[in-house]
Write a structure and sequence with these properties.
With 607 residues, this protein is an alpha+beta fold. It folds into three domains: 297 residues, 3-Layer(aba) Sandwich (Beta-lactamase), CATH 3.40.710; 144 residues, STAS domain (Transcription Regulator spoIIAA, 2-Layer Sandwich), CATH 3.30.750; 142 residues, Jelly Rolls. The chain has 20 helices and 20 strands. Strands 2-1-7-6-5 form a five-stranded antiparallel beta sheet. A five-stranded mixed beta sheet has the order 8-9-10-11-12. Strands 13-20-15-18 form a four-stranded antiparallel beta sheet. α2 packs parallel to α4, α2 packs antiparallel against α10 and α4 packs across α8. The longest helix has 29 residues. It is elongated and about 115 Å long.
Length: 607
């Protein structure tokens, strides 16, 4: 099954691939070699699942996207107090290469402009420029999840043309921000900007920040947790230069861009995004990257100031039809089928408000289970609501699963508007919508029928009274006398056969054709189905134990034919054949014990 997230990113890529606005950066000569048609997108979840489209594996130089990660390294090495005494955290509102220094201290206003980034490179741990570079390379590799490499041609091009940056470095030296040789620190800055990355690398770096500083796949800590919020705060307010305010207002994600065409965006606690497209706007940001992030944020409600939770919390538990089958009494054919195949029915219990990342997690879990599944039941009892974007993905997953021969049905939606309205929007024009059941028992019964390919009740043949489990082991002569006491009753579909609280009814019903539901009343005036009975089964048998008031209602789900036995007639026959009643009561106790075991199994599955 193709992930709906993957399908969405492909559509997003197609939407913006033909945008022709912007120009490839030219102030560094080597960057002019980039193909303006390159365009890649990657999204990485907190457990390391990467979704990629387009030129996601195309390598390019990281440029200014290195700045938050080198700043993070300096924070980890020297501590917050020391670093903030040398590099500020205030937005400058200026271009990336502006000379924005505090007029009193000479400190750069923030680490996202060139002045602050050059200072950060000079402040990482290491006694020499060579040791500092080794530290930068190691830290960047931990954020990426693999060793780094440098594009030497770009490095040389930056070094040979970086006259403005040289002036900035000498100013930093003049104000005492850089302690050592400023040109050595500057060369390390040029090298860090020339590190080769692709979209996948950027998305994993962003996801590492989203994951509290721990790489989602390697499990290695790239940054102490107490510094993650500081890095993300500076990215949110300063990461997009003089577009930072509009970015935070419209997109709402901590982000950083680079003149190589890359953009990273972080949704803390949820996932990281990497985008690559070389043509830049007048502010130095990727045109396609900006448009893609805006659309992503709108479609998936990604604004950082929206409520967020761990996506795995959307799924409270999973169990199978082998743990909790339907409450009907299965026919021998169905019982044999379910003993082998019931585990292929999967219940997924969802909870809370379902956003995109939570549904992505649920869909991915279904994808993992799909090879050994025939159907999925999504129990929505504990769901508060679902975002339209999440519902779109879930509907697409339903369609994709159906194409793979797997059913996805919903249970216990109960006409809640916050869930029904988003889900009711079809996945495509001719989509006929989803299948929903009042409760899990109805849902799993439908799934069992599908799994075992059973005949519908109207197609089922008539059952013999002698084959009923209550009469197991009775001699043929006794059986003939019992049959002589019964009378045939026909109930049209929808007919109430018995009602809760009905008194003085001593009849036992043996179903020879059709299907009924056994219902108990609920406090809200509704009913809960506790059993479904079909051909060859019985109800009302508690009258044999002297029960005179009906504890449940029985309704005909289809046209039903029953053989009905009056307990008074049966008791008179039992006076003549005492062993007859003993045998029936033994069979009844065995049947009740079996039902109790099934109920216990249900309770264990739901506990």
């Amino acid at each position: 099954m193709q992930s709906p997230i993957q399908s969405y990113l492909q559509r997003l890529h197609e939407q913006f691939a033909n945008v022709q606005a912007g120009h490839v950066a030219s102030y560094i000569p080597e960057l002019t070699k980039a193909d303006p048609d390159w365009f890649g997108i990657c999204l990485v979840t907190l457990d390391g699942k990467a979704y990629t489209v387009g030129d996601a594996d195309q390598h390019f130089t990281i440029q200014s996207i290195s700045k938050p990660f080198v700043y993070a390294t300096a924070l980890a090495d020297r501590g917050r107090d020391f670093i903030t005494s040398r590099v500020g955290v205030e937005p400058s509102g200026d271009a990336f290469n502006s000379i924005s220094l505090d007029p009193q201290t000479g400190a750069p206003l923030n680490p996202m402009i060139n002045a602050g980034a050059i200072a950060s490179a000079s402040l990482v741990g290491g006694g020499t420029p060579e040791a500092q570079w080794a530290r930068i390379a190691s830290s960047m590799g931990t954020f990426m999840g693999h060793e780094i490499s440098v594009d030497e041609a770009v490095y040389q091009s930056e070094s040979q043309t970086g006259f403005r940056n040289r002036a900035i470095a000498w100013m930093l030296k003049n104000f005492g921000i850089i302690d050592g040789e400023p040109m050595a620190a500057l060369e390390n800055y040029f090298r860090q900007c020339s590190i080769l990355v692709n979209c996948r690398d950027l998305a994993f770096m962003a996801a590492t920040l989203a994951n509290g500083g721990v790489h989602p796949l390697t499990g290695k800590r790239a940054l102490p947790a107490e510094h993650v919020e500081r890095v993300l705060s500076v990215m949110a307010t300063c990461g997009m230069y003089d577009y930072a305010g509009s970015w935070l207002y419209e997109v709402g994600l901590p982000a950083k861009s680079g003149v190589g065409g890359g953009i990273i965006a972080v949704l803390p606690g949820r996932f990281g995004i990497g985008i690559f497209s070389p043509p830049l706007d007048e502010k130095g940001n990727s045109v396609r990257g900006i448009q893609t992030c805006k659309q992503l944020s709108r479609d998936f409600d990604l604004h950082v100031f929206k409520h967020a939770s761990n996506p795995a919390m959307a799924l409270s538990r999973i169990y199978t039809g082998a743990d909790a089958g339907s409450r009907r009494q299965p026919t021998p054919h169905m019982q044999a089928c379910l003993q082998k195949q019931a585990h292929r029915i999967k219940y997924l219990c969802l909870q809370g408000f379902l956003a995109v990342d939570g549904i992505e997690y649920v869909i991915r879990r279904m994808g993992e289970m799909a090879p050994d599944s025939d159907s999925f039941i999504l129990d929505m009892q504990q769901v508060e609501g679902i975002a339209e974007s999440a519902a779109m993905l879930l509907n697409q997953a339903r369609v994709n699963l159906r194409a793979d021969g797997i059913a996805l049905v919903f249970s216990r939606l109960r006409d809640r508007k916050a869930i029904m309205d988003p889900l009711s929007k079809p996945a495509y024009e001719n989509d006929h919508g989803f299948l929903s059941f009042e409760d899990n028992d109805l849902a799993v019964e439908w799934c069992e029928n599908r799994l075992c390919d059973t005949h519908t009740p109207s197609e089922a043949q008539h059952a013999r009274l002698a084959d009923n489990p209550l009469f197991e082991g009775l001699p043929a002569e006794w059986m003939r006398q019992v049959e002589a006491l019964t009378s045939e009753h026909i109930f049209p579909q929808g007919t109430p056969i018995l009602e809760t609280g009905q008194a003085g009814d001593g009849r036992i019903f043996f179903i020879t054709s059709g299907q009924v539901s056994v219902l108990v009343p609920l406090g809200d005036g509704g009913h809960q189905r506790i059993a479904s009975l079909g051909t060859g089964m019985n109800f009302g048998e508690m009258a044999l134990l002297g029960q005179t008031t009906r504890s449940a209602s029985v309704h005909a789900d289809t046209a039903v034919i029953c053989q009905v036995l009056e307990t008074d007639d049966f008791n008179r026959l039992a006076e003549q054949i005492p062993q007859l009643k003993i045998r029936l009561l033994e069979n009844l106790s065995n049947d009740l014990a079996h039902k109790l075991r099934r109920a216990t199994k249900w309770i264990a599955a739901l506990a």
